[in-house]
Specification:
This protein is an alpha+beta fold. It contains 13 helices and 18 strands. Helix 8 links the parallel strand 10 and strand 11. Helix 3 packs across helix 9.
């Protein structure tokens, strides 16, 4: 996810103390369940924790309509009611399933005995114009028809060319159902590539995933009194990503302003995302990621002035991001806990520092010594050294007759996914080395 698991657990423990065990337990269930709701639960947790540090919260108090907004906040300066949600472009991906098509084609290649990779997939697009504006759609079948399309339209053509002894395979379709070209050259294995038009660029202010998410919350907040708002977290939304590459693209502020214009019962919208900062042109270290906020205020019924300083303080309570929303959304759909310091190592003549999780997995039998060698690009005696490999440092210490004399755990921070184990080696030990 966007924030480290340890940082989220610290905040989960904190809201358990202030908002109750039942609420924290429900959040934990959502955070543990794979799927896109993980991102929504993550944003709800960090927002509520940040607000709880600067005022009093009531959770899910019923409105006269019977609906239960996420939070009612109050301190000595301001009160408001808000719903917290997240937005992604999943709906657009359902109707433009490029990734699924690419995966299905790779599965078909495997079934036909072709090597992994070597595929170039090019997708055509169309411009759909309505009275509200123009949007781009990919010319491929919708997701529910995609598997049948590959099985009946593409696979037979590939089989025919393989039977004819063709080394390079080509499929081109351009009709009412699709416009695409598949070029497969096994000599270019193991990588695939592809090209398609940007279908997730918002071009109509009130017809896009961000606007739809805001509108859904406006309906749920109907009947709320006082200052009312919506807080939106980025779960892989092009509108919130801050990239504007097309002249007809509408940005997040434009969408939020249009929403507030059309829904006067809502007084503010807070949009949360992540930005990467590069310190210099020649920077070697990873880019610095920071939480990013954009506050849109109603022009007809603005909330109190104290709202913006409050949200500034709330942002200061957020953890530092470890991933961008586009990648975090993918990881949220996966089981397991992701990588730790796997493959990382620090060495000197007398010390080796290695991932604690990696060592545990080897000792538990989940990984073999060969897995560890492959991960670190180490070689063992008897191996034919591959390019850019080095001898296994533990094997080298054994050959030198040196045993560990001390081990310590170097704890990672709340933003880290692992600890380090540091092993110190002594001089050659006569127990496993020649007398001297």
């Amino acid at each position: 996810m966007i924030f480290a698991r340890r940082a989220l657990q610290c905040r989960l423990d904190a809201v358990r103390a202030t908002l109750g065990e039942d609420f924290a337990a429900r959040l934990a269930v959502r955070l543990n369940r794979t799927g896109k709701d993980r991102m929504a639960a993550m944003w709800e947790l960090v927002v509520l924790h940040g607000l709880s540090r600067h005022g009093r919260l009531r959770i899910e108090d019923p409105l006269p309509s019977g609906r239960r907004p996420d939070v009612a906040f109050a301190n000595d300066e301001i009160e408001f009611i808000a719903d917290v949600t997240s937005v992604s472009d999943t709906g657009l991906e359902d109707s433009n399933p490029y990734r699924e098509l690419s995966a299905l084609l790779e599965q078909t290649k495997t079934k036909l005995g072709l090597k992994t990779g070597g595929m170039d997939l090019q997708i055509g697009s169309a411009r759909v114009t309505t009275r509200r504006g123009t949007r781009t759609v990919l010319r491929i079948p919708e997701r529910k028809r995609l598997r049948e399309f590959v099985r009946t339209r593409i696979e037979p053509l590939l089989r025919e060319q393989i039977a004819q002894g063709s080394n390079v395979l080509n499929v081109a379709i351009n009709d009412d159902t699709a416009e695409l070209r598949v070029h497969i050259d096994p000599r270019k294995s193991p990588y695939n590539r592809g090209s398609y038009a940007s279908y997730d660029v918002p071009t109509i202010k009130d017809q896009n995933p961000l606007y739809n998410a805001l509108k859904a919350k406006a309906d749920q907040l109907r009947g709320a009194r006082g200052a009312v708002g919506v807080i939106v977290g980025d779960a892989d939304s092009r509108a919130l990503a801050g990239r504007r590459n097309n002249w007809n693209e509408v940005d997040a502020r434009g969408i939020a302003d249009e929403f507030l214009r059309q829904h006067r019962s809502i007084h503010f919208v807070l949009l949360l995302s992540v930005r990467e900062e590069q310190r210099s042109v020649f920077q070697i270290e990873p880019r610095v990621r920071k939480p990013h906020a954009l506050l849109a205020i109603s022009r007809t019924s603005p909330p109190p002035d104290a709202l913006e300083p409050l949200f500034g303080k709330m942002m200061g309570e957020l953890p530092m991001p470890i991933d961008m929303p586009i990648n975090a959304a993918l990881r949220a759909r996966e089981v397991g806990y992701g990588w730790g310091f796997h493959g990382g190592v620090e060495m000197s003549r007398s010390r080796i520092r290695i991932s604690a999780r990696e060592v545990m997995e080897v000792l538990a039998g989940r990984r073999t010594a060969k897995d560890m060698n492959d991960l670190h690009r180490w070689s063992s005696p008897g191996d034919t050294p591959a390019p850019n490999t080095m001898p296994n440092p533990f094997e080298r210490r054994l050959m030198e007759g040196r045993l560990p004399v001390a081990m310590s755990v170097v704890e990672g921070t709340d933003d880290d996914p692992d600890h380090w184990i540091e092993i110190e080696f002594g001089d050659p030990d006569p127990a496993i080395s020649p007398f001297r």
